[in-house]
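User: Sequence in, structure out. Go.
Assistant: Echoing your sequence, followed by the C-alpha cells.
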Amino acid sequence: MRLAKIKMHVTTTSCILLLWMHTLTFVKSQDNPGACTLEDFKKYHLYDGNFDISGMQASYPGGRQVKVGCNVGYSGFFKLLCVEGKWQHRGTNCQPRSCGHPGDAQFADFQLRKGDDFVFGSEVVYTCHKGFQMVSRTNFRRCMAEGWDGVIPVCEAQQCPSINVPNNVNVIGDAEEATYGNVVRFSCKSSNYIMKGAREIYCDENGDWKGLEDGNPTCEVVKCEPPRIENGFVLGDIKEYNEREILNFECNPQHKRVQELPSRCTKTGDRAEWIPTPECEVIKCELTLPPLQGTTYEPAHRSRFSPGETVTVTCEERYWIWRTRTRSVETTCNEDGQWSVRPVCQEVTCIRPQERLFYYWEASRRDETKKLGDTVRYTCRSGYKRKDGVTRATCTRDGWEPNPLCEEINCRRKQFNNADITGKIQAEYRYNEHVQYNCKRGYEGRFTLTCREDGWRGSNECTAITGCPTTSFDPRLKVWQHGDKLYFRCEDGYKPLSKGWWGEATCVDGVWSGVESCIEEQKCREAPEIPNGEGILGSTEQHGQTHEMIFINCNEGYSAKIEGLTCRDGRWDLNGSLDDICKSNQTCSPPPKVENAVITTRYRKQYPSGSEVTYQCRDKYTIEEDATLKCTAGEWKELNIQCIQIPPCGIPPALEDGDTKTAIKEHYSHNETIEYMCQSYYIMEGEPYKTCLYGEWTGHMRCLRPCIVNEDEMRQHNITLKSSGTKYLVHDEIIEFRCTRGLSTGTVAMRQRCNSGVLVLPTCRE
C-alpha cells in the first residue's frame, strides 16, 4: 500500500515537472519569438533516428548554431542554424560507418544476411565449400561500431579412412590421411603383373572413398589362355602362356592370317591380350594394304578380290606404277592372295642430270634420286645462267624444270633519255661485254654498263646542269635565292596563308618545296581546331559588310557558348580560350552496382558526359559482354553486365598408354593446367598439357606405340638386322634389314619405319 502511494507521488511529481517545462518553453518562446526548438528539429525534413539529440536543449535563440552528433555506429557532419525561428542546416546526414571487407575464409564463401553493404548493422554469414565442415563456434560476423565482431570462421576438409593394399601394389597418393578431394592411384610394382580391382579412388565430400566398387586393388601375374580361332586352330596343348610368348596357330585351307605379324601375349592396361588378334580370313587380294596413295581403280568401291579377278589401277598425275613406270596397269589376283603386279602408286622420281654446264649441284652421289616436287639448288658455269632467274631445279613428271636448266647469258640493249651509246649499237650483248654512254645536252658525265649474270651492272651517272627555276610564283610574293634556299615575303598589304610574315623553301627534285600563297592583311588565316567540336567555315552580313565566320558545331553532350568565330582585322575573334567554346552540359550520377564486380576507376559523385567506367569481376567470375559503361546526355548507356561464375573442371580425362605427372584432384579451377607423360618407349604426339577453360578440358595429345622386332618373325621372312642395336623402336624410328646369305630382296624396301606400333617386315626370296 505504501509502495503504491510512493509510485503515485512520483507520477504526479513527473507530470507537474513536464507541465512546468512546457509552460517555461512556451513562456520563453513568447519572450523570444525568433527561437528554434528541439521539437521543430524533430519535424525537420532531414531528421531521422540516426541523430544523437540527447545533448540538445529544448530551445535555442535566433542566430544560434548547433552541432548535432550521430548515434553510435554512424558518422557525419551536421550543423543547425536558427534563423527567424526556423532551422537551416549545413553538412550531411548521419551515415552508417563502414567496417570494410569482412575477410575471406579459406575453403568458404560468405554472403550478406542483413543489409546491402559492409556498414554498421550489417551481418555476413559464411558457408563452407563442398567437402569441408565448419569447426568454428559461429559462422557469422556483424558490423559493430568498433568494426567486425568475432573472428573469421574456419573450415576443415573431410577425412577418409586409411586403405590397406598388398605389398606388390604401388600406391600413388596418401592412402592413410587423405582429405576431401585427394586422389589415390594404384599400380603394380612389377611390369610382369596386371592390375585388378580399383585403379583410382578419391575422397568425396562425405569422407568416403569413391571408386572401390570394382573391388580392392590387387596385382596378378600376366597370363594368356589359348583363344578360339574361327577358320583356324592353335598348335600344341599349352594351357597358359606367359607374357611375350608367341601363339602358334594355322588357318584352314583357302584361308590365311589377317595379319602376318605373330600374335604375342601382351599386357595392355589392366588385362592380358593377344596382340595382334589371331584371326583367319578367306584368301583375298587386298587393295587397301599398304595404303594406295593417289590411286583409283576399276571396278571401284571394292577393296578385296578373289583369285583370278583383275583390277585396272590408275595413278594420279604425280604418281606412277614403279615396276611399269606407267600411270595405269592391269593386275590379277593370284592363288596365294598376291597381285601379279603390285598395285601401288608411287611418286614420280628424277635422277641427277648429266649436264656439262653445271658448276655446282647440291645433291650428293648417295642422294641422286629426288621425288616429284623436290628441289635442288644449283649454279651454272661462267657465261651461263639459270633459266628464268630460278635458284633451284624442280623434279616434275617430265623431268627437271626449268628446261634447259642453264642458258647462255645475254643482255638486251638499254636506252636512257639523258644519254646515248658510243660505238657499235647492237640489239643484244654477250656476257661480260661493256657498253659506254655519253650524257646528252643539259646533262654532264659519262658511264659504262657491263652485262653480268643478273643483267646490266652500273648506273646512270648523268647530272642535270641547272637547279630549280624561279618563276610561276604568286605575283604578290617577293623572292630571292641563296644557294639551294629560296626566301620569300608578301607585298605590303598581304601576308602568307599559314603563319608569320616571311618563309623559306628548298629545291627538291627541281621543284621549290615550301612556297606559300599570299592573302590580304584584313583576311583571316586557316580556321583553328575546336576541342570537342568542329568549325564550319562560312560568312555573315554585319552593317552591310560581309565577314568571314566559323560556325560552331559541338559534339554530343557538349553545348556551344558562342554562335561562332568572326574574322576581325585579319584575326579570329576567340573571346577567350578555344577550350571554353564547347562545354559539357550534363553529368551522370554514380554508375549502377553489379553483383560480384567492382569498378576499376576511382569513385565520383558526378561523372561528366563522355566519361567511361569499367567493371571487373572478382576471382572465379567472368563477364561475357562488354564491361564498360559510358555517360551520355546525363544517363549511363544501358548495358546488361553480369558476373557469371566460371565452372570448375572435373577429373581430367585419362591418356591411353600414359598418365599424369601429378596426383589427380576432383576439381580444377579455371586456367589450371595438368601435365601428362607416356609410358617407356612411347612418344608423345602434341603438347603434353591440358588446361581447364570455362569448365572444360582443352588440349589434345596421344601416346604413339613402339615397335618390337622379333627374331622368330625375321627368321620366317629370311631377314636379319643390318646392324646390331635395340629391338625396341620408338614411333617414326627407322630400322634397316638385310637378306640372309644367298637370298635377294623382295617387293618391300629393306629400310622400314615404325608407325605407331606397326612395322612392315620385308621378305627375301631365292
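User: And one key feature?
Assistant: DSSP finds three helices and 82 strands in the chain.
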